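Task: fold both queries, return tokens.
Query 1:
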Amino acid sequence: MRRIYKTLIQNHLDKYRQMIFITGPRQVGKTTLSKSCAEGYPYIYLNWDNLEHREQILAGISVIYDKLTTTLQDQTKTPIIIFDEIHKFRNWKNLLKGYFDTIESRCKVIVTGSAKLNVYRRGGDSMMGRYFLYRIHPLTVAEIVDKHQQFTNEINPPQKITSTKWNNLLNYGGFPEPYLEANPLFYQRWINLKHEQFFREDLRDLSKIFDLSRLELLANLLIRQIGSTTKYSELAKKVQVSEPTIRNWISTLQNLYYCYAISPWSKNISRSLLKEPKIYLWDWSVIPEQGAKIENLVASHLYKAVNFWTDLGLGKYDLFYLRDKDKHEVDFLVTKNKNPWLMVEVKTSSNGRVSENLHHFNKQLKVPHVFEVVANLDYVDQDCFAAKKPTIVPLITFLSQLV
């Protein structure tokens, strides 16, 4: 299926000189996307996990470029080199810098990875200015119902998703293969294999953690506390390791796209909490409790949206939650250029009255868009974002207007 990211990447290939970094969890479709975007160009695909490809990568740019250019059919098209999983090479940053500085004007470079391609400025060893980052997320309602969105602003017109597609998305998750198969037997085999690859291969190869059984226990505990603030000391007692170890392990799980953290927003909030994040999973389908699964699904839709809007260049967007010491709490706050822009409380059902906590925080923050999104309400063909005050809206209508 065509992903919404394809238009974004193709636009980059047409306009910009920088390398394209495509990151996201394993099996979210990064390799398929990169090859699809390279169609119509002469390109070569090199995967670090392939020994023959690894030899070519380490042989140097001249060998790769010569091999690529000898097969050129269309001299008017700029050739493309795709590097997959190259972050597994310890010196990958310097290698890519050398490649880019050598062939910048003659070739485009796409880099994909299932561990975060975090690049920091460290003295003279900087990748700044050499790449643009595109963060690939699982499928969402808006991507399923409208694969050809116009990327001129954040919000799209509402579109209805069928009940079958909605249930498949909720129960099989947003990773393309199990979603498209929509088969419980296939899904279970896929989940088992993904779990095995993650805890027996990815963690072994990309981290220095050896106590994988306890790390797996931590991962299971995180599934059970979706939507709750993270108590590192309590997790440390249950796993029987130190609190710094728990923090380090959760950071590793984040870097390998098992989970992500949302921090509390504290600016302009009286008696706000300052530290404890909430943890959500990239794959909400594994969460057994329905309310927590729906909250995680909404978190993932919002997280995808803020990453996409930021990568597109519409502004700087971030995702937070709200909670103060008086136990007022709202599930999500989206900021735009460091200002509160969208506030969301998730409910499985509604009593017809907007949550008092939404009103409480809106008095302090004056947020332009404030919604209580309700899972059991039927789709309404109406623009949620036209509302000028805190409003109850159907979950499926709201999600269809994002990305």
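Query 1 returned. Query 2:
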Amino acid sequence: MAGVAKVIQLVGSSDKSFSDAVRVAVSQAAESVRGITGVDVVSSQATVQDGNITEYRVTVNIAFGIERSQDVN
């Protein structure tokens, strides 16, 4: 079935890991966006203090299908 997807770009952060920052971005997006179908990590950054990483940040593209009027009940 053909369709259209919308992509939004978000920044997620975590004090644990890059993968946790991705999880945070997706789980928070899922609170207001229905039908998330994929995530693409665009870039990763980290804040370093005294030789230790203190914050992991990822920029992600999150894709979800566009609902058509006949799809909504």
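Both queries returned. Flag for query 2: The helical segments are 18-29.
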